[in-house]
Write a structure and sequence with these properties.
Blueprint: E1 4-8, H1 13-24, E2 28-33, H2 40-50, E3 56-58, H3 64-73, E4 78-81, H4 88-93, H5 95-116, E5 120-126, H6 150-168, E6 173-179, E7 181-183, H7 202-210, E8 217-220, E9 232-233, E10 235-237, H8 238-254, E11 261-266, E12 272-273, H9 274-285, E13 291-294, H10 309-314, H11 323-338
Parallel strand pairs: 1-2, 1-4, 2-3, 4-5, 5-6, 6-11, 7-10, 8-13
Antiparallel strand pairs: 9-12
The chain binds nicotinamide-adenine-dinucleotide and UDP-4-deoxy-4-formamido-beta-L-arabinopyranose.
Length: about 350
């Protein structure tokens, strides 16, 4: 029988791509989103790609009464919890909003799962929990560093909440996926990232600059201890990332053992510098990208990339898309946005 996955935050960037991959892998999906950082156009884009309607419930995951009705309406087998605020900088000035939304929503979801006997939870964690690690690449066993932002703190606490619930509630299982830097868009250009205002993240800034919306890209720092002096990250294609969720759900719904908490890095295993991104973008799209070097951005780490052996072996998952392909998809998506 088909399994049903509740995708909380499914109208967002990663949730919409994951919904597509789940449906293409044979799951039924119910999207729950309060549209606080997304639009219905993302759900419509998903529906165009998969060629059918996808149940959508406009509900705030912090609203237990409203979310209970969703759990009662659909035969849910697993939950993927994307619903959270994610702007690191904003979290510093709005800690309570971040703590409330990100932690309340998770606890309400787990409480309802417990009430309704839903046993499988996949959670969106982040490489931000590692901070600047002394040893690279980071493995899942690399110690977490003290969080540098309220946002990062919510990811650490969320991981701990899930671990404690798995210990306490018989049969309950949780997988935390620690994403590195998710980028790109669906090759159909029907869904992608919808940054609000001036993008804080690199790739949306790059594509907006290429589109002429921004005059030039500011490269934050060229004096890091890296081969070209600019900072290094592990950029993971959003479709590859979406497929990691399908693998995590499959592992859980097929697993009779249960009561297990697991963490997996989701990255490519390859570190890429900001200046390499500029070059690779120009090569993949043929568009010139004006940029200037400016001082380092406060709070940025120098370099990080993932050790992915565990997710490769245990989830049977591997990042497959090339950086060129990913950047070309991000550019195609930007062009549809600019129309
Ligand atoms: P996004 O903002 O595009 O998606 C999040 C979705 O959740 C949005 O559609 C938003 O409307 C919804 N939402 C937020 N609070 C909600 C609530 N209380 N009830 C219902 N819906 C709610 O962000 P994204 O980039 O798709 O990120 C998804 C998850 O992955 C987040 O938890 C984020 O912290 C995590 N993550 C993102 C990145 C990244 O760089 N994009 C990296 C690591 C981890
Ligand atoms: C990437 C690189 C910048 C913009 C953030 C969160 C992290 C995770 C992923 C959620 C850095 C440089 C950027 C620009 C630049 N999110 N840059 N010019 O900071 O690695 O990670 O998103 O969990 O928690 O902190 O991503 O895209 O902002 O930056 O030079 O205009 O690009 O300095 O080296 P970051 P990013």
């Amino acid at each position: 029988m088909k399994k049903t996955v509740l995708v909380a935050g499914g109208a967002g960037f990663i949730g919409s791509h994951t919904t597509v991959e789940l449906i293409e892998a044979g799951y039924d999906v119910v999207i729950v989103d309060n549209l606080s950082n997304s639009e219905m156009s993302a759900v419509e884009g998903v529906e165009k790609i998969v060629g059918r309607k996808v149940p959508f419930e406009k509900v705030d995951c912090c609203d237990q009464v409203a979310l209970r009705k969703v759990f009662e309406k659909y035969p849910i087998d697993a939950v993927i919890h994307f619903a959270a605020f994610k702007a690191v900088g904003e979290s510093v000035s709005k800690p309570l909003e971040y703590l409330r939304n990100n932690l309340d929503s998770l606890m309400v979801v787990i409480d309802l799962m417990r009430e309704k006997g839903v046993r499988n939870l996949v959670f969106s964690s982040s490489c931000t929990v590692y901070g600047q690690s002394d040893k690279l690449p980071v493995t899942e066993a690399t110690p977490r560093k003290e969080a540098e932002s309220p946002y990062g703190y919510t990811k650490q606490v969320s991981e701990d909440v899930i671990e404690q619930c798995v210990k306490a509630y018989e049969g309950f299982a949780g997988i935390a996926l620690r994403y590195f830097n998710p980028v790109g868009a669906h090759p159909t250009a029907l869904i992608g990232e919808l940054p609000k205002g001036v993008p804080a993240n690199l790739i949306p800034f790059v594509t907006q600059t290429a589109a002429g919306i921004r005059a030039e890209l500011s490269v934050f720092g060229d004096d890091y201890d890296t081969p070209d002096g600019s900072a290094i990250r592990d950029y993971i294609d959003v479709i590859d990332l979406a497929k990691a969720h399908v693998a995590a759900v499959a592992r859980m719904v097929d697993d009779k053992q249960k009561s297990r908490y697991e963490i997996f890095n989701v990255g490519t295993g390859r570190g890429v510098s900001v200046l390499e991104i500029v070059k690779e973008f120009e090569k993949a799209t043929g568009v010139k990208l004006p940029y200037k070097i400016v001082p380092r951005r406060a709070g940025d780490i120098e370099k990080i990339w993932a050790e992915t052996t565990l997710s490769n072996e245990e989830l049977n998952w591997k990042a497959e898309r090339t950086l060129g392909e990913t950047l070309a998809n991000a550019w195609r998506w930007q062009q549809t946005l600019s129309k």
